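Long-time lurker, first post. I've been practising inverse folding by hand and with some scripts of my own, and I keep getting stuck on stretches where the structure tokens seem ambiguous. Below is the full token string for one chain I'm working on. Before anyone asks, I'm not after the true native sequence, just a reasonable design that respects the backbone. If someone could post their per-position residues I'd love to compare against what I wrote down in my notebook.
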């Protein structure tokens, strides 16, 4: 197909995706929240509760990260670091992993990460949220809302290649061969 014809078709697909996003936002706005406990985690300063992660915000993003052993989770976290000020202007943000706080700190410092990190090690949090299975930990994001004394999960989705949370995949999609077997690394 000629370049210009291909671009026209691609733009039609992108418009369809934009329309679907609008439908998804409408559906999301009517979700019945799921009440969750006020989980206890370990952070850099010691014990921290889910309710404390909200700070002065009503909404909270918690990234379910598999820890320093996952190059994919590292790539996502590198990207979150870049958009952090924009996200935190609207909602609180934290990255949760099974790594111990001291391991998280050392790894975060080596990557220049600025976001809050919490360890869900020895808790049921990841399993209860659906991000730990018999195969192990899985990456994802859960969104919580605090209403008075209640904490409710209002949204969640898994993370993986081609998702909407890592721009790298979308840039690679613009190459003729796409990702073509490419995998992220800790350093290039």
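-- Answer (accepted) --
I ran through it position by position. Result:
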């Amino acid at each position: 197909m000629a370049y210009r014809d291909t671009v026209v078709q691609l733009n039609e697909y992108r418009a369809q995706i934009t329309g679907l996003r609008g439908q998804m936002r409408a559906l999301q706005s009517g979700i019945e929240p799921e009440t969750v406990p006020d989980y206890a985690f370990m952070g850099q300063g010691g014990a921290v509760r889910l309710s404390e992660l909200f700070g002065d915000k009503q909404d909270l993003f918690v990234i379910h990260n598999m820890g320093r052993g996952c190059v994919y989770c590292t790539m996502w976290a590198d990207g979150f670091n870049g958009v952090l000020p924009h996200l935190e202007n609207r909602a609180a943000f934290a990255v949760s992993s099974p790594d111990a706080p001291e391991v998280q700190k050392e790894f975060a410092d080596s990557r220049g990460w600025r976001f809050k990190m919490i360890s869900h090690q020895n808790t049921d949090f990841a399993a209860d949220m659906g991000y730990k299975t018999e195969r192990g930990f899985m990456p994802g994001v859960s969104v919580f809302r605090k209403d008075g004394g209640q904490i409710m999960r209002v949204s969640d989705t898994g993370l993986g290649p081609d998702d909407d949370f890592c721009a790298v995949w979308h840039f690679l999609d613009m190459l003729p061969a796409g990702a073509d077997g490419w995998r992220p690394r800790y350093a290039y």
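A couple of notes from the structure itself: The longest helix spans residues 3-29. The beta strands are 34-36, 40-43, 46-49, 59-64, 92-97, 116-119, 132-133, 136-137, 140-147, 150-158. Happy to go over any region you disagree with.
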